[in-house]
């Protein structure tokens, strides 16, 4: 069994004073594996990502990456540690071209990426042919599906150790969404650890190596996909605390 790459231990976090949105959350993401997180609207899924990625500092608990304490580290330093975040909303610069958006995360890190930047850009454009066609277009002029592909292509450029992926299929046509899920599998097969949130519970359970249920800011169930497969609907409803 692979060791935990990302480990949260007893994380409590929130936006204001004494209101805790997350309470005592513990979970792990292993190398080359997908940890799936499911929960109702408002359960705290995006808050969890913001806490891991340093937009919010936990009030208590710890976050470790490959054994090193990264609790409260800021987003730009986390990129250097090998953590990347594909948020639900766009992280693109709409007035920059596709190529400029791809280059940007690596440009400021010449020491680390300078030698490989051009090769990696070519490799990325080969793997995402639609982006090669559009490399000189402004990102804001791309379709929704193409913009999401660009988000994944940015992650491919950076090749992080852990990728946090929030609602990758939201607003996408089924075929485009299926492509994004294929990329997630490809990333994991290449050794990345993935923490995935998606409203498509069946898809998350089918893809994940480990599933966590977040309900009102607390992990109320976790297990292997097989534990969630039988009569998924009823079980998930039960775990999420909804009366049927
Ligand atoms: N910036 C903020 N300031 C204050 N409270 C917030 C903020 N963002 C979210 N919250 C609150 O935190 C709680 C959890 O929200 P969060 O967005 O993390 O849930 P979620 O599980 O991602 O929901 P969804 O599936 O709808 O995206 C909600 O009660 C929400 O109102």
Automatic annotation (TrEMBL):
Molecular function GO terms recorded: ATP binding; ATP hydrolysis activity; branched-chain amino acid transmembrane transporter activity
GO biological process: L-amino acid transport
UniProt-listed InterPro entries: AAA+_ATPase (IPR003593), ABC_transporter-like_ATP-bd (IPR003439), BCAA_Transport_ATP-bd_LivF (IPR052156), P-loop_NTPase (IPR027417)
Listed Pfam families: ABC_tran
Gene3D superfamilies per UniProt: P-loop containing nucleotide triphosphate hydrolases
All copies of domain ABC transporter, residue ranges: 6-241
SMART domains in alphabetical order: AAA
Swiss-Prot/TrEMBL keywords: Amino-acid transport, ATP-binding, Cell membrane, Membrane, Nucleotide-binding, Transport
Family under the similarity heading: Belongs to the ABC transporter superfamily.
PANTHER family, sorted: ABC TRANSPORTER ATP-BINDING PROTEIN, HIGH-AFFINITY BRANCHED-CHAIN AMINO ACID TRANSPORT ATP-BINDING PROTEIN LIVF
Name of the molecule in the record: ABC transporter ATP-binding protein
């Amino acid at each position: 069994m692979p060791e935990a790459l990302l480990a949260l231990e007893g994380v409590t976090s929130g936006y204001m004073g004494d209101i805790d949105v997350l309470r005592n959350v513990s979970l792990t993401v292993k190398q080359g594996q997908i940890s799936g997180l499911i929960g109702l609207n408002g359960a705290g899924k995006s808050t969890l990502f913001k806490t891991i990625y340093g937009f919010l500092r936990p009030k208590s608990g710890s976050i470790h990456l490959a054994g090193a304490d990264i609790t409260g580290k800021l987003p730009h330093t986390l990129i250097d540690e090998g953590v990347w975040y594909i948020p639900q909303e766009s992280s693109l610069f709409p007035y920059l071209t596709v190529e400029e958006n791809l280059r940007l995360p690596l440009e400021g890190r010449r020491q680390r990426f300078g030698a490989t930047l051009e090769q990696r850009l070519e490799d990325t454009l080969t793997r995402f042919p639609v982006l090669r066609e559009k490399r000189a277009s402004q990102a804001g002029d791309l379709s929704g599906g193409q913009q999401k592909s660009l988000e994944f292509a940015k992650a491919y450029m950076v090749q992080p150790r852990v990728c946090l992926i929030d609602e990758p299929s939201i607003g996408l046509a089924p075929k485009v969404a299926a492509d994004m899920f294929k990329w997630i599998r490809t990333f994991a097969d290449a050794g990345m650890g993935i923490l995935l949130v998606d409203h498509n519970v069946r898809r998350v359970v089918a893809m994940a190596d480990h599933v966590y249920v977040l309900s009102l800011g607390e992990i109320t169930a976790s297990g292997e996909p097989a534990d969630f497969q039988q009569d998924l609907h009823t079980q998930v409803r039960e775990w999420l605390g909804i009366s049927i």
